[in-house]
Design brief:
The complex is a heterodimer.
Chain A lengths: L1 H19 E9 L6 E4 L15 E5 L2 E3 L2 E5 L2 E7 L5 E5 L10 E6 L4 E6 L3 E6 L7 E7 L4 E3 L5 E8 L1 E8 L6 E7 L2 E3 L2 E2 L3
Parallel strand pairs in A: 1-16, 1-17, 3-6, 5-11
Antiparallel strand pairs in A: 1-13, 2-12, 2-14, 3-4, 6-9, 7-8, 10-11, 14-15
Chain B lengths: L1 H10 L22 H4 L42 E4 H8 L1 H4 L14 H5 L3 H10 L6 H21 L12 H14 L11 E4 L1 H11 L14 H5 L6 H7 L2 H9 L4 E3 L4 E3 L11 H13 L5
Antiparallel strand pairs in B: 1-2, 3-4
Helix pairs in contact in B: 3-8, 6-7, 9-13, 12-13
The chains are: A mainly beta, B mainly alpha.
Chain lengths: ~190, ~290
């Protein structure tokens, strides 16, 4: 009897969760390549920092991937897979120059980690190879997505509610718009350089 | 042969084998070639190649006397004044080419890693992309890049050999030239000259250029083995060739006998036309004075 009650509770909770979470999807146009779309700060809500460390690799004199998005509080591992020394530095986070940092210069096979607590875009550079660049977008919430090369994106598991959603693309100004999620929501952005 | 005896006689009178460069003594070349170490075939790499070939084998009756030996009299006893540009030529150019741009993706360009050691270059670069950087921050980056560059010379990489034979002074002269090659502002004022013994010059050519493809020691291949791709070890070169033939082979090219029955062919060895005859002769001298070891 006790077990049946538990199952019942589980089913009800499961249903209510399924009903209150949806997706935000759409298209970022006007620019070529990958963009990042994320749900902005939700007042009164904080999120536990993820324990997984995404990796930004340096391989063949290229940062891989070129665009990465993480939730604020995430530790990112910077790996060097090349046989030459690489460096990682950034001059600002979200335009704030006080958050400039030089992670160092290190040889093949080694990695260095950094915890990104402040939301904003981080242009990542290698001093040794000026043609190399990557972008890390630190989102204030766990609701974010990196689009495909055509600009199509989908943010999963967004609880029902009203949010400000922001689109980021390298070299353009961020664009934000209000989006109400009740099940599946759509939000398209047109950015220009 | 008479010539060798003369060389020995002259060299034995030299005050020191490391004249002008007391920091690191001249030592014999040892071990397998760099491409053997990497398990690469000569045909599959750009390393140690100038992409210039020697003359084709002559037809019967054709005159071969186009090349002229022009060694400086007494070259074997004369110290040389060497600039960073020469250190680069003797040690780096065989792989990284005259421009320093190498043969990507196998051989990386030296230009960017060298430019990144300059505070001015970093600041200018960051200004250009609209992310101005303070001199202090640029200096930290430049210092790290410089340490990485020095580390590269001393330890090498996966694909690049280390250069423990280069002294601190030679490395300093080399870096000054690399900065000039990479267009770092003010580099022209930093060039330095050093004095090197003939054996030291020969050592650099052999260890940094010849040893990329030739093993130090090993059996002397026969013409058929050479046709099949064998590369004669350095230990056999001074017996396979006279000084004159060696200098010609290195700086101008000379047909080689290959196959069965043996026939003259142009051969696969690239021509190092950026080396002077004296420098090639110094390599021969060095191989004679410091016989290659296992």
């Amino acid at each position: 009897m006790k077990r049946n009650v538990l199952i019942l509770i589980a089913v009800v909770v499961g249903f209510s969760l399924a009903a209150s979470a949806g997706t935000i999807s759409g298209q970022v146009s006007g620019v070529a390549g990958q963009s990042v779309v994320y749900v902005d700060t939700i007042s009164g809500k904080t999120f536990p920092a993820p324990t997984q460390h995404p990796v930004i690799d340096q391989k063949g004199l290229v940062f891989q991937p070129h665009v990465t998005a993480v939730q604020a509080g995430t530790t990112v591992d910077f790996l060097n897979s090349d046989s030459v020394a690489h460096n990682v530095f950034w001059t600002s986070i979200g335009g704030n120059k006080k958050l400039a940092h030089n992670l160092g210069t290190w040889p093949k096979g080694e990695r260095k980690s950094f915890k990104f607590d402040t939301p904003g875009a981080v242009p990542i550079l290698c001093n040794v190879h000026p043609e190399m660049s990557a972008y890390l977008v630190v989102a204030p919430t766990p609701y974010f997505a990196v689009s495909d090369q055509t600009g199509t994106y989908k943010i999963e598991n967004v609880p029902d509610g009203s949010y400000t959603v922001t689109a980021w693309h390298e070299g353009t100004k961020n664009q934000s718009k209000p989006v109400s999620v009740s099940g599946d929501a759509k939000a398209d952005f047109t950015l220009s350089k | 042969m008479t010539r060798l005896v003369v060389i020995f006689a002259l060299v034995s009178q030299l005050p020191a084998q490391t004249a002008g460069n007391k920091e690191i003594p001249v030592t014999p070349v040892t071990g397998e070639s760099w491409i053997s170490h990497l398990h690469k075939r000569f045909s599959d790499t750009s390393m140690g190649k100038t992409w210039h070939s020697g003359p084709a084998a002559q037809m019967p009756g054709e005159d071969s006397a186009v090349w002229q030996e022009k060694l400086s009299p007494g070259f074997e006893a004369r110290s040389m004044t060497v600039h960073g540009a020469d250190v680069y030529r003797l040690n780096c150019r065989g792989c990284h080419t005259g421009s320093g741009r190498g043969a990507p993706p196998e051989i990386n360009s030296v230009i960017d890693p060298v430019r990144s050691t300059s505070v001015e270059v970093i600041m200018e670069r960051m200004k250009k992309v609209g992310m101005d950087m303070s001199r202090a921050n640029a200096a930290v980056l430049a210092k790290q890049a410089n340490a990485a560059l020095l580390d590269r010379f001393h330890k090498g990489g996966t694909d690049m050999p280390p250069f423990p034979q280069l002294s601190e002074t030679e490395v300093r002269a080399l870096i000054a030239y690399l900065r000039l090659l990479a267009g770092v502002p003010g580099a022209e004022k930093q060039q330095i000259a050093i004095t090197e013994s003939p054996a030291r010059v020969g050592e650099q050519v052999v260890k940094s250029t010849c040893h990329i493809c030739h093993n130090a020691v090993g059996p002397n291949p026969n013409p058929q083995q050479i046709l099949e791709g064998a590369i004669p070890p350095l230990s056999t070169l001074t017996t396979r060739t006279t000084l004159s033939q060696f200098v010609r082979k290195v700086t101008y090219g000379n047909p080689i006998t290959m196959g069965a029955p043996p026939e003259p062919f142009r051969g696969r060895m690239p021509v190092f036309d950026y080396l002077s005859q004296d420098e090639a002769a110094n390599a021969y001298l060095y191989l004679t004075l410091y016989p290659p070891q296992d």
